[in-house]
Amino acid sequence: MHRGLLLVLALVLGTPATASAETVAQTLQLFGLLGTWADDCSEPPSNNNFHTVYEPLANGNVRRTYYNAPDKIYNQYELQRVNRVSADQLFYSQTGSAGRIDVVLTVTGNRYHVLSSQNQDGKVYVRDGRFTENAGDGKSAGKESPWQNKCQD
Q1: Which sign does the torsion angle of CA 75, 56, 61, 103 carry?
Q2: Average pLDDT over residues 86-101
Q3: Strand partners for 82
Q4: Residue 55 and residue 22: Cα distance in Å, rounded?
Q5: Sign of CA dihedral 42, 94, 99, 101
Q6: What is the rounded CA–CA span in Å between residue 2 and residue 11?
Q7: Residues of 134-152 as b/e, b for ≥16 C-beta within 10 angstroms?
Q8: What is the pTM (predicted TM-score) of this model?
Q9: Are 32 and 110 in contact (CB under 8 A)?
Q10: Alpha-carbon gap, residue 81 to 134, rounded angstroms
Q11: Cβ atoms within 10 A of the Cβ of 87, count?
């Protein structure tokens, strides 16, 4: 595994969820992450333009849903743990049909992109902001993970 990713995960997993006991939804709200995101907000969801929706749940967690066609859910996860890595980086642990996946995002204004993504078994999908051979159909290996833009809250 990449040393930088190991260090980030070790730091994040070894620290409390947040310094002030914020819920996942409160932390994501502070980062401006709640709402709808896409590569191109003016175009509908598609395999080349995933839409991502982060919505707060009554229990304080957040549901993250990917759409790859209008009204068609590609996958859905519940974010149950979140940590601020730095002023512009956020770690979250999400669980869904593929088990647990740990993600680190860079959030810059109204844009974000995935820096790292790894499942509970150690399979890495994104490393240093680039897809690995484990991501999707394998054709994306080496490509930068896309920057998503804020569409609406």
Answers
A1: positive
A2: 94
A3: 92
A4: 16
A5: positive
A6: 14
A7: bbeeeebeeeebbebbbbe
A8: 0.83
A9: yes
A10: 24
A11: 7
Q: What's the pLDDT at 18?
A: 40
Q: Rounded to the nearest 5°, which phi and psi values hold at 59?
A: -85, 5
70: DSSP letter? T
User: Is-contact 62 42, C-beta < 8 A?
Assistant: no
Average pLDDT, the chain: 87
Closest CA to 87 of 105, 101, 102: 105
Residue with tokens 């929706």: 53
Amino acid at 135: A
How far apart, in whole angstroms, are the C-alpha atoms of residue 151 and residue 39?
A: 9
Residue tagged 């907000």 (tokens)? 41
Which pLDDT does position 134 carry in this prediction? 86
Residue 2 has pLDDT above 90, yes or no: no
- Cα 128 from chain centroid (whole Å): 14
Q: Which residue has the tokens 């709808």?
A: 36
